[in-house]
Amino acid sequence: xxxxxxxxxxxxxxxxxxxxxxxxxxxxxxxxxxxxxxxxxxxxxxxxxxxxxxxxxxxxxxxxxxxxxxxxxxxxxxxxxxxxxxxxxxxxxxxxxxxxxxxxxxxxxxxxxxxxxxxxxxxxxxxxxxxxxxxxxxxxxxxxxxxxxxxxxxxxxxxxxxxxxxxxxxxxxxxxxxxxxxxxxxxxxxxxxxxxxxxxxxxxxxxxxxxxxxxxxxxxxxxxxxxxxxxxxxxxxxxxxxxxxxxxxxxxxxxxxx
Length: 258
Ligand code: NAD
Description:
Blueprint: H1 2-5, E1 12-16, H2 21-32, E2 36-41, H3 44-56, E3 61-65, H4 71-85, E4 90-93, H5 109-137, E5 140-145, H6 160-180, E6 185-192, H7 201-204, H8 208-216, H9 226-237, E7 248-251
Parallel strand pairs: 1-2, 1-4, 2-3, 4-5, 5-6, 6-7
The structure holds nicotinamide-adenine-dinucleotide.
């Protein structure tokens, strides 16, 4: 009975930013559980590479080029996916950016807008487009990728624009969860610590002192791997989390304990 709840056979799952990193791992986790996975990313070569990897694993995968910042494009892609697959059961809002280590006083309008456009606005356009379909169906599970940076202020790199965007993602998650709870749509978020992906190479690979601080500030003394977030996403997306909505689940190696 319990393992059954984690199975996703017959479900259609859309994962944004699934061309690499955490998104690619989420697509694999959901696909291994039986879902048909739609890999959505703004870069076509990443879409193609990610879909090819999934197909090698015998996962039912399709790709679509999507820039989440463009609301009309999001609506069109949602309509196209619904036309092709009839339903959408899972949405993982993973596409996100972090050009960190910029002080607040040096943050340009463009830098601020870039982060808000992708991390917050883009995530909302996707929740709205796919959420409408889920509400029509009377069922669906949305998992947003937030960040521990929505709870704490990272050290040593300044990144107020990123932290603010992720705190907003957390509260948007709760707001949508409350609005849609009685209509069969659950909305949760995962808040990861530092995960080893291209996004964090500025610290893990390029700045030894920064990386040392990250590890010292983490009770587990290590960063995470994409699959360690994907397994939490899989749980939240599945019926195993049927009582959960509006939760922001920390997967942070204990970072927020201190
Ligand atoms: P990544 O940079 O490795 O991958 C992000 C993917 O999103 C890329 O394939 C990129 O092409 C795509 N993308 C970027 N902008 C897009 C847009 N406008 N439309 C569609 N796709 C777009 O990043 P990652 O580390 O895998 O991070 C994924 C998510 O996890 C992000 O939301 C990030 O903020 C969050 N997160 C990451 C970490 C970490 O340490 N890596 C920690 C906490 C939260």
